[in-house]
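cron nightly-structures :: item 1 of 1
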Amino acid sequence: MAGLITPMLASAAVAGQTWHGQLLQWTEEFAIIVLVSCVLACVYRLLRGPHLADRALAVDIVAVQLIGLVILLTMWLGSLVLFDGVLVLALLGFTGTVAMAQYIGRPHLRKKLQSREGAGS
């Protein structure tokens, strides 16, 4: 264990940061890379999804991942400039999810209304 910590302490001392500050920076960079790859995978599912429900779920997941990405970028940059974008992304993600749910749900409502009208006459 001490053999792993010693190089981190040495590189942190050269950079002028504490070892936990350096570890936090590496974790942020790793998380940003992982989230970008996950967003790309969800965009692929959004474009190629076999069903409409897959596409709706991909829209919702992309919105949540973009919120996490903006928060990570805010932490990485050390500035609150991008933090207002989280609220905008949350509202757009919610709106997109509701719009997709309405789009998926309308054909089912039409079928129910037609069956009720046919049964009543």
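cron nightly-structures :: done
DSSP finds four helices and no strands in the chain.
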